[in-house]
Amino acid sequence: MADGTWGEPGRVTAHGNGLWQIDLGFRGREGVIAAYLLAGADELALVETGPTTTLPALLAGIRAAGFEPAALGRVFVSHIHLDHSGGAGVLLRDHAPEAVVHVHPLGAPHLTDPDRLLASAGRLYTGRMDDLWGEVAPIPAKRVVAWSDGDSVETGGRPLTGLYTPGHAAHHVTLWDPFRGVAFTGDVGGVRMAGTGYAVPPAPPPELDPEAWAGSVERLRGLGARRLFLTHGGGFEDVSAHLDQLMPNLDELRSIVKAALLGGEDRAALTERVHAHVAEKLGPVEPGVLANLEWATPSFLAAAGLSRLLAKRGEVPAAAA
Ligand SMILES: [Zn+2]
Q: From ligand 1's centre to the CA of 76, what distance in Å?
């Protein structure tokens, strides 16, 4: 993996009650991608794996929390985008021989046979797949647990329920711990860097669905969660204010991309407009925060996802998108 490995040393934050946040050091940066370790007397569990390129940081983080990766019993992935679950195959194959991975039924086939997923991602990340994600190994079907909306398991010292929350992806699941009032929101709960107020709804192709996403936000709101843990940005306690801004923020991005497309702008110009908008909404921040946000939710992906959506809905001519 030579120059495609980052993530030293895997900074770990203990949140109490057997919950640790492991920063995966994606691109050598802190705050871009996190995984969450859940420990109880019964079983060690993990929420999100990150990509294979950050596995060294994940493994170091699990050890820093006082556990061995081989003790992992269950791994949960919110969805099968490579920044969330690309490392699951190698983790299970090489480091966690007893673990199974839980995923929505629509995502399961992509974990057992990632070829289509890799072809699709490869069209977006031309020539950069290995550098960004590393190996994406197939997972034997007997180690993949397809779980549907409302399914619950007792693991990592807590009950965990899978909530089907589409919109960002058609197979997205939020992990809900009703005892502690904590939700692990993957990407459907947005991307927001620590210490900032602006939450970005990541809008990549091909499954972006704003109406479904709005329904998922309503569902999250209805949980009455005390805290949201984002894969990109960590934990936030201003739950209502955070959730309230997601759909308006998506609408703003959609309007910007639509106007630019109708004005005849090309994809590079769209990407620049999305980036400039995010920078403006973010306001004055510490150096590196905007770059972290861009790594977590790249502007070119939002430009592509929103263009595709607008063409599909007939809001712009197909030729313009
Ligand atoms: Zn995603």
A: 14
